[in-house]
Amino acid sequence: MAAVKVAILGFGTVGQGIYHIINEKREQFKETLGVDIEIAKILVRDVTKPRSNASQDLITDNFEEILAIPDLQVVFEAIVGEEPAFKYSARAIENGCNVITANKVMFSKHGLVLQEKAKQYGVQVGYEATTAGGVPVIKTMQNILRVNDVHHIQGILNGTSNYILTQMRSEGLAFDDVLKDAQNLGYAEADPYNDISGQDAFRKLMILSALAFGKQPRWEDVDVIGITEITSEQVEEASAKGLRYRHVADVQLGEDGELVAKVGPELVGPEHPLYSIEGVNNAVALDTNYIGTLTLIGPGAGMFPTASVMVEDYADMLAKQTAPVTI
To answer: Taking a C-beta distance cutoff of 8 angstroms, is the pair 265, 237 a contact?
Structure first.
């Protein structure tokens, strides 16, 4: 049985989730994938920090030790922020490693470059976890695009914002009160700026745009508006009319062939594909030429939804490598 060595970059929530899933499912992977997956190293910033859930001999703060692992096949990139995530991902690809990332900040800006580099070096890049967490949007779009054209994407791409808007309507609470509740429940960070300002949804929209259209709109041309100015009175008035506020990320091809995108709160009625999406769920509605409108719904974040789709990305890579050649 083939032994596969992998490394994890970053050991926060997502990195720990990957570590847990690979170890818990190691015997199952031997049966279903035909490989024995071994976590060879884990890259962290502070090697002195106590970590009861990982062996200390796996921990390093030196990326060169990652690249020096003999026969390293895949790097799971779970670092926060653009750098050093991009630099490490690029170097891993140049070293002949597959890369799987959950980093929407990095990938929204550098994804097309990394994918082109991966083609050059004969490896693959998995990025399902960058967008909508546990919802298989990327794989679904990749399959659809083999036959269909996608001409319009609308999405609820941030579970925190959707939870806040849902609770403001269903419980009649003010924005600040629901935000505190979301932080207490772990749905929102201590600094929730990226979620409530729309920046998180914007980054994810740019990733979907690059996949669907092979390009992104000019970032400076995209209006990005958060949910902080929506009042409980506005929510109540909308509800009385049968409407709901949704924070919608939207990109489509204009009549001139140029991309038009926006991110911000919208009032939607029961006929809208995002009307029924509640709580921390994410959803993406794809308008296509043959299928029509397809809506995907599911949990948008968290340790195991995100980590599991990263491991699934690697399972897909293995399947492609071992698929029989037909003539």
So the answer is: no
> Rounded to the nearest 5°, which phi and psi values hold at 239?
-60, -40
For 159-195, write each residue's pLDDT tens digit.
Answer: 999 999 999 999 999 999 999 999 998 888 889 999 9
- Residue 204 among the catalytic residues: yes
Tokens of 276: 């029924």
Tell whether residue 12 is among the known ligand binding residues.
yes
Has 119 been labeled as part of a binding site? no
Question: What is the model's pLDDT at position 324?
Answer: 45
Active-site residue identified among 49, 204, 215, 262 = 204
Extents of the domains making up the chain:
2-133+304-322, 137-300
Residue 126 marked as a ligand binder: no
220-245 residue pLDDT tens = 999 999 999 999 999 999 999 999 99
Q: Which CATH superfamily is domain 137-300 in?
A: Dihydrodipicolinate Reductase; domain 2 (3.30.360.10)
13 marked among binding-site residues: yes
Strand partners, 223: 262
> 2-133+304-322 belongs to which homologous superfamily?
NAD(P)-binding Rossmann-like Domain (3.40.50.720)
